[in-house]
Amino acid sequence: MLVPMAELLAAAQREGYAAGAFNTYNLEITRAIVRAAEAQQAPLIVQVGSSALRYAGREALTALVLAEAQRSPVPVAVHLDHSAKLDEIRWCVEQGFTSVMIDGSALPLAENIALTREAVAIARPHGVTVEAELGSIVGEEDRAAEREAVGLTSPAQAEQFVQATAVDALAVAVGNVHGFYKGEPKLDTARLDEIHRRVPVPLVLHGASGLSDAAIQRSIQGGVRKFNVNTELRVALFTALADTLPRIHAHYDVPGLFTPAIAAMQAVVEEKLQLFGSAGKA
Ligand code: G3H
Ligand code: ZN
Asked: Which residue is closest in CA terms to ligand 1's atom 4?
């Protein structure tokens, strides 16, 4: 069933676990994500970024993701990931997304606050949850490369930002990056704890691919209630396709090519849902 993301995060906050938010680009990835949540009886966030909407066609991808969410017996929030455009946010709100992320993190603080306030003004009357970002989470959303973290979130600014914008959830930069980590990922947990102490809303950790189980658990203690995972699903997809293609090539069997890839992605999502503590919480 389709639910507001705030509802899902509030339950996670109450019970001390985190929800998993997984990026989709197409039918196969969406299927894998939703099947995993159903298999694990877990509440779920399915998210699409601006580039995925451009790639798949925004009407088609939106219809697919919303239909899967509505059909599913588990609670599913449908979220717009990393959007810097208010017209895109407005469009998604009108279509029935239950959450949007306004990403003004590249802007100076005052401009990020102003942009985020506009997004809240668009979304709130529709009961749509708003996530915003403060600090810089480096790396591209769709293409993985090795990165080192820069531009960490200031706890004092985070407090000011949340008060000024009234957002529902805050994405923070505490050593997390998009894509692969350069060396062992090192999260600044003291900074995370300080943000958690000052900020009343659920925190979001982008770039959860590649984090150790211990880092995930420590982040949950530090107030993280939503983990964003993209790269690990794409790795599972590409690995399974590369493995299947040489064996199946002569038959041009489309379901035969994609079925193992869906299973591989589903396995990744199921493992994450267990790790985040949301398995069995639906
Ligand atoms: O917004 C999506 C994520 O932050 C995904 O990051 O590709 O490193 O898992 P990741
Ligand atoms: Zn992200």
From this structure: 206
Ligand 1 atom, smallest distance to 178 CA: 8
Is 51:142 a contact under the CB 8 Å cutoff? yes
Residue 116 structure tokens: 């985020």
**Which amino acids are annotated catalytic?**
81
Answer whether 0.90 is exceeded by the pTM: yes
Whether residue 206 has its Cβ less than 6 Å from ligand 1:
yes
Which stretch of DSSP H or E encloses residue 6?
helix 5-15
Q: How confident is the model at residue 150 (pLDDT cuts 50, 70, 90)?
A: confident
Ligand 1 mutation pick, 29, 99, 137, 178, max ligand atoms within 8 A of CB:
178
What are the extents of the domains in the chain?
5-229+265-276
Q: Residue 143: pLDDT above 90?
A: no
What gap in Å lies between CA 95 and CA 122, rounded to an integer? 13
Over residues 138-161, mean pLDDT: 86
**Ligand 1 center to residue 248 CA distance, Å?**
31
What CATH number does the domain located at 5-229+265-276 have? 3.20.20.70
